[in-house]
Amino acid sequence: MHDKIPVTLLTGFLGAGKTTLLNRLLHDPAAGRVAVVVNEFGEAGLDHDLIEDAAEDVVLMQSGCICCSIRGDLSRTLVSLLARRVRDELQFDRVVIETTGLADPGPIHHTLMVDRVLAPNYTLDGIVTVVDGALGMSTLDRHAEALAQVAMADRIVLTKRDLTDATMRRNLQARLERLNPGAQPVWADMGAVPAANVFGLGAMRQDIAADDALAWLAAPAADPLAGLSGIALPEAATSAPFETVSHHASDDRIATASIRIETPIPAEVFDFWLDSLIAIKGPDILRIKGIVHLEDIPYPFVFHGVQHIFAPPTPLKSWPKGDTSSRIVVIARDIPKPELDRHLALLLSPPAEKTEAPGMMGQSLETPF
Ligand SMILES: Nc1nc2c(ncn2[C@@H]2O[C@H](COP(=O)(O)OP(=O)(O)OP(=O)(O)O)[C@@H](O)[C@H]2O)c(=O)[nH]1
């Protein structure tokens, strides 16, 4: 079996610093040979001194990287890149798709997952969201798309530190932490960030170390079950270290809920939980990630979805830090957190109660939505 080509979706609001970051990565040998897919070369703002050769739709860079503009639709461009790679006309190790400022990464992920030619050859490595350190707060206040980009991210890259002071940075970081506790923001000064912070984020690899899967999930490390329902409050909701910012009404649209379950989950309970969440609330789900221990299966698997599109689950070869519990994180838009919590609590139900008997906390195990 050949390795799939990792694909990074680079997103972020207009002017946040995506191109600046990309240009730095294209200079960086540690990034490997990157094929960058952009809408238009003009928009891409590539460093001209890096360009070695420019053909109609592909620019070769001195670093061995490639920049490729989308002709027609994205899938056609990715198929064409693949064909040229197979014919040895182009060499690249990974693809970065720079989405335009407002693009929603969901449909791009969908294309990667379902396209007959693309799905067997490419895999989502991660969604990297660039946030302007100076303007990020007001952008998040005014643009719901920016909130969604933050909520979906596997990694947040913060820019323009030189235009901020310590209070601005603290407040922004605290807000990002609440919106997406797992994305572990990193600062990039004029785009400079270690390649390892933006690439290799994906957990959907057979060879991923179990501990790396834990980092990818950013699951709360060792929180005991909180309360009768067993639902662990997201860390950020309770322990953001610098809770000095005022309440942001717009952020109420984004809710994060997580759960940690010590005992193996019956497969039918897990299926019912996931199917019902997707069937009823699919469009409002931004991200789901989990490491799951199913009954009668000796090792965990990791799974994740961007909106309602799921990558095939990947088995791990061992338990992260020897811990055999399941951990699941759901980030959603326009679903109140108590509803997400109640739905996660379905995972604690014995399978027999799935349809008729009252469940935990005296609730029926019908879905709470
Ligand atoms: N002061 C400062 N400026 C930065 C930094 N990073 C990026 N910029 C500037 O911010 C502006 C926008 O950066 P781009 O990289 O073009 O942003 P973008 O997200 O690609 O922009 P669009 O393609 O319009 O969405 C440019 O003038 C960059 O030079 C930084 O760390 N500090």
TrEMBL record:
<comment type="function">
    <text>Zinc chaperone that directly transfers zinc cofactor to target proteins, thereby activating them. Zinc is transferred from the CXCC motif in the GTPase domain to the zinc binding site in target proteins in a process requiring GTP hydrolysis.</text>
</comment>
<comment type="similarity">
    <text>Belongs to the SIMIBI class G3E GTPase family. ZNG1 subfamily.</text>
</comment>
<dbReference type="InterPro" id="IPR027417">
    <property type="entry name" value="P-loop_NTPase"/>
</dbReference>
<feature type="domain" description="CobW C-terminal">
    <location>
        <begin position="254"/>
        <end position="348"/>
    </location>
</feature>
<dbReference type="InterPro" id="IPR036627">
    <property type="entry name" value="CobW-likC_sf"/>
</dbReference>
<keyword id="KW-0547">Nucleotide-binding</keyword>
<dbReference type="InterPro" id="IPR051316">
    <property type="entry name" value="Zinc-reg_GTPase_activator"/>
</dbReference>
<keyword id="KW-0378">Hydrolase</keyword>
<dbReference type="Pfam" id="PF07683">
    <property type="entry name" value="CobW_C"/>
</dbReference>
<dbReference type="InterPro" id="IPR003495">
    <property type="entry name" value="CobW/HypB/UreG_nucleotide-bd"/>
</dbReference>
<keyword id="KW-0143">Chaperone</keyword>
<dbReference type="Pfam" id="PF02492">
    <property type="entry name" value="cobW"/>
</dbReference>
<dbReference type="InterPro" id="IPR011629">
    <property type="entry name" value="CobW-like_C"/>
</dbReference>
<protein>
    <submittedName>
        <fullName>GTP-binding protein</fullName>
    </submittedName>
</protein>
